[in-house]
Design brief:
Length: 388
């Protein structure tokens, strides 16, 4: 008990010593300091409020984009293939009679027409044979006329008259055969085309058993050969026989204008191993720009799509949900529209389903857009414009 009472007296004795300095310190802060602190606090709160008001309604930036109108046009439904050209006609010029070549009347690789003289075989032996046959034919004709006069007077038998008739006919046939052999001495071009490299020169002995003298190929028109995969046969059969089925041929480098021809032949069976079907078209080639065995690009046109809806190919974008385009509305905001794209057409246009003619679509600048975004549209200029 004495220890507890002693501790209480000691605490009560020290308490006034700790409170006096705090009261003195409180009396030492001037009143104007409180006023300054209050003003600073008010300014801080006002500035914070102004910042909050300024950032509460941010304005979305206007995105510049290139746009184009949705158009309608008649376009082809087609298959693109790789093919080769083949000569429309190929003739191996062969000697029909034996003899020595005495002239050559063409330049290797030149164009010739039907009836142009190519080679001349020495005609002298055949001319002599023809002259002999003509003389015999004239003699037999005189004999026949004499026999007819004698028969009219009933001087000769019927057998003698029949023999005279047969001899006249035989000599006439021999004359015609000799004339044919003489004509064969002048070897002429049977077609319009281009001659290749000759196989014989002047002075060579040729005949029916010798190799061809030269080869002539007809190049106008020319065949276009290509193949169609068997999984596309159903589509081909659907339009086969239609008036719009055409074969368009052009070179890979675009050096000639595409040439439109007709379908000539389609094979009756699928080739084993490759799973393709042979197809052949006939293509005009008046300037001889297409050559046999040359690789070409082929567009197999099956039909014409009337009033197809077209947009620039760049307008079609692809997301996880599928192909889409951005359609610009009247207030210059964009709407995301799912579409079904089709084949690419001339002029870098693509057939699509899901948009209407006259609507405006975004062609470039789609990466910065989202549905409802504000845009600044500018007309789109295709890089292929002006090209044929």
């Amino acid at each position: 008990m004495n220890i507890v009472q002693e501790e209480e007296r000691r605490v009560a004795h020290k308490a006034p010593i700790t409170t006096r300095p705090r009261q003195a310190a409180a009396r030492s802060i001037p009143r104007w300091a409180y006023a300054v602190f209050a003003v600073l606090a008010a300014l801080v709160l006002l500035r914070s409020f102004q910042r909050g008001v300024g950032t509460s309604t941010p304005q979305a930036p206007v995105r510049p984009v290139a746009v184009a109108k949705v158009v309608t046009k008649d376009v082809p439904l087609y298959l693109d293939e790789i093919g080769t050209c083949a000569a429309y006609e190929t003739v191996l010029v062969q000697a029909q009679v034996s003899g020595v070549i005495i002239t050559r009347n063409f330049q290797d690789g030149s164009d010739v027409k039907t009836g142009d003289l190519l080679f001349t075989i020495d005609p002298r032996p055949y001319q002599a044979t023809l002259d002999q046959a003509k003389a015999q034919a004239e003699l037999d004709q005189v004999t026949l006329k004499r026999q007819e006069d004698l028969r009219a007077r009933k001087v000769i038998s019927q057998q003698d008259y029949d023999t005279a008739v047969a001899n006249a006919q035989k000599s006439q046939a021999a004359t015609e055969a000799a004339q044919v052999n003489l004509d064969w001495c002048y070897i002429k071009s049977p077609i319009n085309g281009r001659v290749g490299l000759r196989n014989v020169d002047v002075g060579n002995l040729v005949g029916p058993s010798t190799p061809p003298l030269v080869i002539i190929q007809g190049l106008d028109p020319i065949y276009t050969d290509f193949t169609v995969a068997q999984n596309e046969l159903a589509l081909v059969r659907k339009y086969l026989g239609g008036s719009n089925v055409k074969v368009e041929t052009y070179l890979p480098d675009g050096s000639i204008t595409p040439r439109l021809g007709d379908l000539y032949f389609i094979d009756k069976a699928v080739q084993p191993g490759s799973g393709t079907v042979k197809v052949r078209g006939v293509t005009p080639n008046p300037d001889r720009a297409l050559w046999p065995s040359e690789f070409v690009r082929v567009r197999f046109i099956l039909d014409m799509l009337k009033n197809a809806t077209l947009v620039p190919s760049q307008a079609v974008q692809v997301s996880q949900s599928g192909p889409f385009v951005f359609v610009v509305k009247s207030d210059n905001t964009v709407d995301l529209r799912p579409v079904k794209p089709g084949q690419r057409q001339e002029g870098d246009l693509t057939v699509v389903e899901g948009v209407k003619p006259g609507e405006t679509v975004v062609v470039t600048g789609q990466l910065a857009l989202s549905p409802g975004a504000k845009v600044a549209p500018q007309p789109y200029t295709s890089q292929t414009s002006g090209k044929s």
